[in-house]
Amino acid sequence: MKKVFIIFLTSASLFMSYFSRIAWSIVSVYSNLKPTEIEDSIIFSLFFVGYILVQLPAGFLSDKVKPNIIALISLLGLSFSSFLSGLGISIEVEYIASFLMGLSAGWIYPVTIKILSTSFDKNELPVAIGYYSLAWPLSIVLAGLILPIISLSFGWNWSYYLIALSSLVLALSYLKVKSYTTSSTQFAIIKDKKVLTLAFSGFLFFLSYWVITLYAYKYFLSIGLNPIIAGIAYSSLALAGIPSTIIAGYIISKIGVRNTLSFFEFIYGVLTALLSIGNVILIVSVLMGFVRFIITPANSSAVSLIGGRNAGSVSGFANFFWQSSGIVAPFIASIIILNFGFLLLWIICSILIVVSSLIYYVLLR
Hints:
- By secondary structure, the chain is an all-alpha fold.
- Helix content is 82%, strand content 0%.
- The chain has 16 helices and no strands.
- Helix 3 (55-64) runs antiparallel to helix 15, helix 4 packs antiparallel against helix 6 and helix 10 (193-222) packs antiparallel against helix 14 (281-307).
- The longest helix has 30 residues, at 193-222.
């Protein structure tokens, strides 16, 4: 039961980190602040600025300080910043809240990976991370299903109040968790070829992924879907990821991390290009969800297995580059959308993902 609780708590924490990140991509449509495309991109980017600023210290401190304490503090920060965002005082306050939200959420991934790596042995870890990674598809599915309804029924602010309350409850739950430091962390990890490959190739993949995640809902609205159907289509980008995340650990154990990453990223890149075909949107979205959430546990398994005793440091370093893509992705996407439209956007994303898959196959040996 102790291990089940650890998987649940770490996964729920990751869920809140991710849910808070993507919420604005939906609720901004309903906000009384009426943000422009550029204001939206600034809010997205400020979250990621705050997020990546803490990745390296989060990774190293997760190996040096009891990670349950770090998780507790970060979730308290996420609760406060989400409440501030929900107040909706002005667009400038949203900028500040988004930056603080990123600063708080940025600690959660390295910390939870550290807790998992010290709680499970190497044979159990890929499967545990598979269940832990359910947080990613569930956050997208629930965002698409409930955020439009909450925004239309109660006001967009209540989405952030819900995040604030949930984060507070999770933060207090970490008082029941015993966690340990195991580190002799050295900065030499950044010279490891496998770590550098994870960082660079992951940057290309996540650059495209954040464009898809942050702009898919608006794309669905732009092709004529009503808000609820658009929300369902958005949820489809992750719905099939729920079963695929569960089986991902077994796939990784069978064919290895490198083969999993390179093969499924290649397929995901091809599917991204097909998003531009309007009459197959739902089918493509479901398939993307299935493939995407095999990739996610593979990334986490890679940093855990390569990092070993320094899993917190390796995950923090790799995630620094993965999530820094979120700073530039909104600006690139907004420029392409305004000048060329969504078709070119999906093609560029597709190319970047395919290149990422090839780099993994060649260098991650």
